[in-house]
Write a structure and sequence with these properties.
- With about 300 residues, the protein is α/β, with parallel strands linked by helices.
- The protein has one domain: Arginase, Chain A.
- About 35% of the residues lie in helices and about 15% in strands.
- The protein contains 9 helices and 9 strands.
- The chain has a 9-stranded parallel β-sheet with strand order 1-3-2-4-9-8-5-6-7, sandwiched between helices.
- α2 crosses α3 and α7 packs parallel to α8.
- The longest helix has 21 residues.
Length: about 300
């Protein structure tokens, strides 16, 4: 399956989904390098599927375009963030209502920071952030020195104006460090652990937390998916594979359920690491999840 390829400066205002790649991993601390290769690998994996989702949804009811990879500068973080923000701004400025949904292929998880920073400047409504991740990425500074790193991304996001701690929901966590645990203890952030999902009723557990966000006036959400939220059995090709993760089906159900509660405004999928994905199953799984997620969203657009 190949999406229509369009130069980002030739985008039309009839696009519902805009795919972009950010082949950037300069902030990653993992010794398993290669996340910058993920956009290409995920795009290749889309070709393995039929044109309908598992539920028979035709995602091409809505216009989906791919603007390719944006410019990144491995040794110039500020310039890379500017490039990301300019591209997100370009997509969101296509029309004034029913904004196109950017679908970003990372890259390491730090790319979420400039994306959210630009959304906060442009998006006209209050929104929450739902994060599927084995980690919470809430270090203040990695090794007490690095302020901008994939593992500090949500600490940085919480420093932005208009984002409150209660607006973030982490799902699938299972690898939280001392500093992060102390931060969580002193805040109202209550991640939904992978363990709690495995022990209970996924739909009931998530519905309760989604309803809590709704009571805060949140009807729109940005969704960030770190592929390591999945158990390494399903996604071995990632920088930090952590045992005990979600199954593909649990994540599939969670993505379906959240579209029943919220309007999705943006998506990123990060941390696929093709050099450690010899069977390509992680890239294939990432592509399939995005295809299914687009299908869930498309159905709610009717």
């Amino acid at each position: 399956m190949v999406f229509e390829k369009v130069d980002k400066y030739e985008l039309k205002d009839d696009s519902s989904f805009v795919i972009l790649g950010i082949p950037f991993e300069a902030t990653s601390t993992s010794p398993r390098a290669g996340a910058k290769e993920a956009p290409l690998a995920i795009r290749k994996a889309f070709n393995y599927f039929s044109l309908l989702t598992e539920l028979g949804i035709d995602i091409f009811q809505k216009k989906i375009v791919d603007i390719g990879d944006i410019e990144v500068y491995p040794s110039l973080l500020e310039e890379t963030m500017t490039s990301i923000e300019e591209t997100i701004s370009l997509i969101l400025s296509l029309r004034s209502d029913n904004l196109p949904i950017p679908i970003t292929l990372g890259g390491d998880h730090f790319i979420t920071y400039p994306i959210i920073r630009k959304f906060l400047q442009i998006f006209p409504h209050k929104f929450g952030i739902i994060i599927f991740d084995a980690h919470v990425d809430l270090y203040d500074k990695w090794l007490y020195k690095e302020k901008y790193a994939h593992c500090t991304v949500f600490h940085r996001i919480l420093e932005l104006q208009s984002i409150e701690k209660e607006d973030l929901l982490f799902i699938g966590t299972r690898d939280i460090d001392y500093e992060e645990a102390e931060f969580l203890k002193n805040t109202s952030i209550k991640p939904i652990s992978s363990h709690s999902i495995s022990q209970g009723d996924l739909k009931a557990l998530l519905s309760q937390r989604f309803q809590r966000l709704q009571r805060r006036g949140i009807d729109h959400v940005y969704v960030s998916i770190d592929i390591d939220v999945l158990d390494p059995i399903f996604a071995p090709g990632t920088g930090y594979p952590i045992p005990g993760g979600l199954t593909y089906r649990q994540l599939w159900k969670a993505l379906d359920l959240l579209t029943q509660y919220f309007q999705v405004i943006g998506i990123d999928l990060v941390e696929v690491c093709p050099p450690y994905d010899s069977s390509e199953i992680t890239s294939i799984t990432a592509a399939r999840l995005l295809m299914e997620f687009i299908g869930f969203i498309t159905e709610k657009m009717k």
